[in-house]
Amino acid sequence: MEARPEKIAGCEVLYVPYWRFKGLEFSLGEKKPDFRIVDHSCLAIKNSGLPISLGLRSQTQKLKFIGKDIAGSFLKPSISRKEILKQMSADGDKKVYIGEVLSLIFMPFLQDAHTLYDGFTKTAMALDPSALIADKQPLAYHLEFTPGLCPNCGWDLDGETDSLVLQCHNCMRSWLIHNKKLNTLKTLFYDLRSDTDMQIPFWRFEIEFKTLDCSTHAHLIKIANIPKVITTAHGNQPVYFYIPAFKLNPKLFLRIGRQMTLAQIEPIGIRNIPGMRFHPVDLPIAEGFQAVLPILMDLCINKKEIWNLLAEEKLKLKRFSLTYISFRIFGSECVQETLGFSLPINALRFGRNL
Q: Most CB within 10 Å of its CB: which of 10, 70, 269, 292?
């Protein structure tokens, strides 16, 4: 039952911690990789009698960062990041999480001497607030910033606020934000045209396999059953995995990764970074590397045989770079005319909120 306004007017605010996990989940079964978008929340304290989940509130309510001026009491988390990740991924087949974000959300409750109320619905909870030991001070969380100045020449770097890669149009270098530092990054381009509307980024990985034979273009043609005659050149050409360096819904992520890898394009380096629109790189290298397994399984014909080999496989990243692919915009689609595929603009927009 909702409390009357006069009953909660003098209540103190109690902030209760919840872990929130969101990202793309791929389950590697023997037939094909299954996938879904996950957005879970779980109570971050033990044995409290509080609601175990935030439900849809974390998705529908506007969130803001904790500041020093927030009044109220805070419960400290008693379930660690390691415990909650293990709890969320313990069941079923081998799983790969890509683009995952684990955050801590504090939900407001209202309390008086004898009753605890839900901060949103104002509903009384069947819980004595005296059983909850809270701290009057907010937890020590703070934002960290990386200066957007080129380490090489000191020029202002260009890029979206959610991008891990920034460009310097003075010394023509690309910089990757990693471990709170700006690191130089080898950048390549494919199908660069004057009428290009957008450059979309892909991680370009060369992988070392210990069990599976998939180190050359000839191996890829064989395991993916591509209708091509295998030549000596194919046997000498290393295979590159092209993984979207941005977040997409998992079905589209697999399709685009498969198409780009099967294409085995030959991007080139250029001296001048073009002054055009760049889609932000918001998928880190480590998570792009994890995506190699589900994309490899998706493009293989004999998935059961590949699964048996991959179960014992330990992939090693030999080399990586970033490749920008040129797209033109037609209506609601970003079209790559040379390779013959497109990306919905709305899918790119939605991916930035995953």
A: 292
